[in-house]
Amino acid sequence: MRRTGRWLLAGVAGAACLLAAACGTDAITVTGGVGSATLSVVVQSDSAGIALVKQSVSSQNSTLSGTVTNGDSHVGDHLCSFHVSKNGNSYDVDFYASNLPAGIPATDFCSPAVQKAFLDGLPSS
Question: What is the largest CA-CA distance in the chain?
Fold first, then answer.
């Protein structure tokens, strides 16, 4: 029984190590607002993907605009999310909002058109 416990512990430790390595993702948050509404977009990717997002935002070539911070510093409640890939980079995109005006469906922020616009705004790697 003692040997099984050690193998189980080693397996859990190994899995945690693999998860930690796989979680080598970076995040960037773009936050902007109009009136009392605030929208935050959190993008997670590897460092190369995040560099492309930063380049896109700074070049004004993106649908994302606002204050850029490293990490996840979103404001508000989660609206929706999507996962897309371009040129070997994968992106997890989450939208958050506070004081969103009534009548704007949260899912509109993650529509296929928004996903396409996000990808089109990214430079080639």
Answer: 64
Task: For tokens 């935002």, name the residue.
Answer: 57
Rounded to an integer, what is the distance from CA 33 to the centroid of its chain?
A: 18
Decide: helix, strand or coil at residue 87.
Answer: coil
Spatial CA neighbour of 65 closest among 50, 78, 81, 53: 53
Q: Rounded CA gap, 35 and 14, in Å?
A: 49
pLDDT in tens, 5-45: 333 333 333 333 233 334 457 999 999 888 888 999 999 99
Map residue 19 onto helix, strand or coil: helix
> pTM above the 0.85 mark?
no
Order of strands across the sheet that contains 89-98: 67-70, 26-34, 37-45, 89-98, 77-86
